[in-house]
Specification:
193 residues; mainly alpha; 49% helix; hpI Integrase, Chain A; 9 helices
Length: 193
């Protein structure tokens, strides 16, 4: 199986705190919302720039995610923290219907290159390992965290928009929760001699 890089829960908290500490930076709210949404929704760097204001169903707290790389687009229900953060960002940044959700200083949709630079910057400030300082580490992180929390492979496949189950299976090498549950079934089964 493929070996992937992901942030532990502790590392992820350090990353988000490094963004929150940028008090004088005019784009701190954008970056905080962008990184939180990227993590929770498991978005690739190229998918962040595809988000538009109308993709956010504010009353339902849902975000439609356009998936690329032959994946299946889907709607992710945001938790209260991310829903509140996104609402605040949209309101304070005056993002209008039809506008890209996250834009550069020049008003263009945020680029993959800029997201990777921001990740390196914030991961550096958080003193996180350099080999994890890539945007895709956020996608890997939510996948591993959901697998650790007990999500089964089909649930995770749908959540991440994977067409092939093989793309999802890689995340289960990092958790023993499912292995332990399966072992307990075997150990307690009268059919096993």
């Amino acid at each position: 199986m493929e070996k992937i890089k992901y942030f532990t829960q502790k590392e992820l908290k350090k990353l988000f705190r490094s963004i929150e500490r940028q008090k004088d930076y005019p784009f701190v709210l954008r970056d905080l919302a962008m990184f939180n949404i990227g993590y929770l929704c498991g978005l690739r760097v190229s998918e962040i720039g595809k988000l538009h204001q109308e993709h956010f169903n504010e009353p339902g707290g849902e975000l439609f995610c356009t998936r690329l790389k032959n994946s299946i687009s889907n709607t992710i229900r945001l938790d209260d923290k991310r829903k509140s953060l996104l609402k605040k960002y949209i309101r304070e940044s005056q993002v209008k219907n039809g506008d890209p959700l996250f834009v550069s200083r020049k008003g263009n949709p945020i680029s993959s290159r800029q997201l990777d630079r921001l990740m390196k910057h914030y991961a550096g400030k958080a003193k996180l390992p350099e080999d994890k300082s890539h945007w895709h580490t956020l996608k890997h992180s939510i996948a591993v965290h959901l697998a650790e929390s007990g999500a089964d492979v089909k649930e995770l496949q749908n959540y991440l928009g994977h067409k092939k189950i093989d793309s999802t299976m890689v995340y289960f090498q990092f958790t023993t929760k499912q292995q332990d549950a399966f072992y307990n079934k075997i150990a307690g089964s009268p059919q096993i001699i």
